[in-house]
Write a structure and sequence with these properties.
EC number: 3.2.1.20
Structural class: alpha+beta
CATH class of the largest domain: Alpha Beta
Pfam family, one: Glyco_hydro_31_2nd
Bound molecules: alpha-D-glucopyranose
CATH superfamily of the largest domain: Glycosidases
Largest sheet: 9 strands, antiparallel
Shape: globular
Number of helices: 13
Family: Belongs to the glycosyl hydrolase 31 family.
Keywords: Glycosidase, Hydrolase
Number of domains: 4
Radius of gyration: 27 Å
InterPro entries: DUF5110, Gal_mutarotase_sf_dom, GH, Glyco_hydro_31_C, Glyco_hydro_31_N_dom, Glyco_hydro_31_TIM, Glyco_hydro_b
Strand content: 25-35%
Distance between the termini: 71 Å
Strand order of the largest sheet: 5-6-7-8-9-10-17-16-12
Length: about 800
């Protein structure tokens, strides 16, 4: 136990006893004798905000992370006091505030402690910059585990680790290297079957220590700003993620093609090269929806220009690619070349849109074009200007989507890799230095990009991709994990990073498949594709200076394997789209580490490799060369091996065979998995029937299929098709009920139901309680039933 004297010695200050308490509707203010004010706001029954002021003064309340549309409201709220503490009670939680120390404790209604202050809030005055270093320390509970925190390339359970949030261009980063490209100061704690989350909404550099320095303590602190955090209660982990996502927002549904396979490289040019790549996809019948143009399409790396020698007529080229089913995605960076004859530069100078240093000159830094100035995206006027710059690209030339890169912002040839800390920012009317604006700079850039792209691809849906991110960026853009390396270790990292990002509210994420730096061999590439098709954003990208990284670059055997897996992704599109719909609507993470799938099973708490894709597909990548399979943990319940329908009982480790053409893949018993036919790109085929792979189970299981036009906004006005299936299995009977919602009429009329693992021979089939002739619904025999899509109940009974 650290004593107060020790603390003072270290320069820390801490609150003393409460002298005043005030309630204002859902807010409670506790003031201490030495001028600390704790503001507690009840956001929802399971979401509580804690905010601390020193010297009686809060800073203006402003957050880029919090979604202005986040829902609020509680069903019960009460505050009482006894001799030693105040007690705030919601329908889910009790918050105790200690009268002597201002320390807090959160418990469930039964009094089980979920989270409690150790030293609680304390601070150190910052004489160099002004303000405080604000700190919080919590007691680490017995057996507590920690998850979340964005893109950290380290073991998924953060217990015993210390991490830092300062968005950084970290080329060819290594395992455990930190910080990386994202700042997502949100973690999930799990102990005694209870899970909660903490989101420290502070855009300064933040640090988190998960029982690293002292085993009994978990703490977090920031270089400035306020101690301002949100507490979310589960008790289930997925509810914690949902509550966090509800606060910081989820993206709207992307166009369905964004869920296809995408091909990128630094760089495809000139036009003939782009066309050649596109042609090879079609010739080799490898599905692909998008081709990316990296910086070399620009004229001397000037954003919003074209190198006309390489791309003489971009509009025509994009149009021709479109006719062949390819969308074109272009890169835009934040650095604007200092060039008096360049119109973007001129406009920014005329309007005073560039960031300035403390003493007045424009902030300068080297990036691809040489010396650049950087727009201050934290100024709403600059964002509006930036959004408008996309008009010509999207509306006239026909570009489909945009990726924003280097938006940390990355600056070359300086040890800090970014803007000087004295750089000034508008911060939406709360002028600040770069210390405060750094972590949100890329987010505000991509927010402006999103506004512009959305405006000018309308009535289509936008797709925007970002490299840098702060909490809440998921509302505007998908993301990738930056410049990884073509090594087996990086395949492991990619797997952990994607799961972690999903647990951090950021599900629309992918890695540079195959690795950005260096060159994978065919085996690594194939293994990475096998994993990558189960990531929400699925794109091959590489630095291009070590050789080719297209599906056909590694010989015929690998090409065939890669094709097979990309085809599987296209078959699974309706399942993936339904996952996205859930994420977008409810904040449900698209990938679940198995601890989030079954937190009560303590064997899952330290697993890194296995994850659930959506809600019913278990995936576990092969992460080393020459493997014929691997040991993996199968979560509790019954699972079908996807490749041979063998049923395995979970709750244990198992050796799973997976030669180079397979990945360990299991389907939850009882699941109904929707599939489309393989298409070379989204929309190539009219879907004539929906395949439903039904995996028999005894008992009940729910499955969902969400569909809509795949683009445009009609779904917001009810033009969607939602099918909820309830499977009920018995030893001699299988019933599937369907509950439908929405006004979208799908093109197909029939379901092709493929029955897996049916334990009996079919004797009778009933549709909506009427017996039908078996030959009518099972014309081809086998276990395939073809029925009209509108049934409400299908019953199959044994002979
Ligand atoms: C950065 C990006 C990478 C891109 C390159 C050139 O390294 O992370 O994806 O290819 O810049 O634009």
């Amino acid at each position: 136990m650290i004593t107060n004297t020790e603390l003072e010695y270290k320069g820390n200050l801490y609150p003393n006893h409460i002298v005043d308490y005030v309630r204002d509707k859902d807010k409670f203010y506790f003031t201490t004798e030495n001028g600390v004010v704790l503001e507690i706001t009840v956001i929802q029954d399971r979401t509580i905000r804690f905010r601390y002021a020193t010297e009686h003064a809060f800073q203006p309340d402003f957050s880029y992370a919090v979604d202005p549309n986040a829902s609020r409201g509680y069903s019960h709220l009460d505050c009482t006091e006894n001799q030693t503490e105040y007690i705030i009670e919601t329908a889910r939680l009790k918050v105790l505030v200690d009268k002597k120390t201002l320390r807090t404790q959160v418990s469930d209604l039964k009094g089980n402690i979920i989270n409690e202050d150790e030293l609680g809030f304390h601070w150190e005055e910052n004489y160099e910059y002004g303000g405080n270093t604000v700190k919080m320390s919590k007691i680490t509970q017995n057996t507590e585990s920690f998850y979340g925190m964005g893109d950290k390339a380290t073991h998924s359970n953060l217990k015993g680790k210390r991490v830092c949030n300062w968005v950084t261009d970290q080329y060819a980063y290594g395992k455990d290297q930190d910080p990386l490209y994202k700042a997502i100061p949100f973690y999930i704690g799990l102990h005694n079957g209870q899970s909660y989350g903490i989101f420290f909404d502070n855009s300064f550099r933040t640090d988190f220590d998960f029982a690293h320095e002292r085993r009994s303590t978990t703490s977090f602190w920031a270089d400035g700003g306020e101690m301002n955090y949100y507490f979310f209660y589960g008790p289930e982990m997925h509810k914690v993620v949902k509550a966090y996502t509800n606060l910081t927002g989820a993206p709207e549904l992307p166009p369905l093609w964004a869920m296809g396979y995408h091909q990128s490289k630094w760089s495809y040019f000139p036009e003939s090269n782009v066309k050649d790549i596109a042609k090879q996809f079609r010739d080799l019948k490898i599905p692909c929806d998008a081709i990316y143009l990296d910086i070399d399409y620009m004229d001397g790396f000037r954003c919003f220009t074209w190198d006309k020698t390489r791309f003489p007529d971009p509009k025509r080229m994009i149009n021709e690619l479109s006719e062949d089913g390819f969308k074109t995605v272009v890169m835009i960076d934040p650095g604007i070349k200092i060039d008096k004859d360049y119109w973007v530069y001129q406009e920014a100078v005329e309007n005073d849109y560039f960031c300035k240093r403390a003493d007045g000159p424009r902030m300068k830094g080297k990036v691809w074009p040489g010396e650049c100035n950087f727009p201050d995206f934290t100024n709403p006027e600059v964002r509006e200007w930036w959004a408008e710059l996309y008009k010509e690209f999207m509306a006239e030339i026909g570009v489909h989507a945009v990726w924003n890169d280097m938006n940390e912002p990355a600056v070359m040839e300086v040890p800090t890799k970014t803007a000087p800390l004295d750089t000034r920012h508008d911060y939406d009317g709360h002028p600040s230095s770069h210390r405060k604006a750094h972590n949100v700079y890329g987010m505000q850039m991509v927010r402006a990009t999103y506004e512009g792209v959305k405006r000018y691809v309308y009535p289509k849906r936008p797709l925007v991709i970002t490299r840098a991110a702060y909490s809440g960026t998921q509302r505007f853009a998908s993301t990738w994990t930056g410049d990884n390396v073509a090594t087996w270790e990086h395949l492991w990292i990619a797997n952990v990073q994607m799961q972690r990002m999903c647990m951090s509210g950021y599900s629309f994420v992918g890695s540079d498949i195959g690795g950005f730096a260096e060159q994978p061999n065919g085996e690594l590439f194939a293994r990475w594709i096998q994993l990558g098709i189960f990531h929400p954003f699925c794109r091959v990208h590489s630095s291009g200076d070590h050789g080719d990284q297209e599906p056909w670059s590694f010989g015929k055997e690998i090409t065939d394997i890669v094709r097979k897996f990309i085809e599987l992704r296209y078959e699974l599109l309706p399942y993936l789209y339904t996952m996205f719909w859930r994420y977008s609507k409810e904040g449900t993470p698209m990938l679940l580490p198995i601890v989030c799938y079954d937190q009560e099973d303590t064997q899952t708490h330290f697993r890194t490799d296995e994850f659930i894709f959506g809600e019913q597909i278990l995936v576990c990548p092969i992460q080393e060369p020459n493997a014929k399979g691997r040991r993996m943990y199968i979560p509790r319940g019954n699972w079908y091996n996807f490749w041979n329908d063998e049923v395995v009982e979970g709750g244990k480790e198992k050796w799973v065979v997976a030669d180079i053409d397979k990945i360990p893949l299991f389907i939850k018993a009882g699941a109904i998995i929707p599939k489309y036919p393989v298409q070379q790109y989204v929309g190539e085929l009219e879907i004539k029937e929906l395949v439903l792979d039904v995996y028999f189970a005894e008992g009940a299981e729910n499955s969902t299929v969400y569909e809509d036009a795949g683009d445009g906004y009609a779904y917001e006005n009810g033009k969607y098709s939602l099918r909820n299936f309830k499977l009920l299995g018995k030893t001699n009977e299988l019933t599937i009920q369907q509950f439908k919602d929405g006004a979208f009429i799908t093109n197909y009329e029939t379901f092709k139901i493929k029955l897996h693992g049916l334990p009996f021979k079919i004797g009778e089939v009933q549709l909506d309680n009427e017996k039908v002739a078996i030959e009518d619904v099972m014309p081809n025999g086998g276990n395939i039933i073809i029925v009209n899509k509108d049934f409400t109940q299908l019953r199959i009974t044994a002979k």
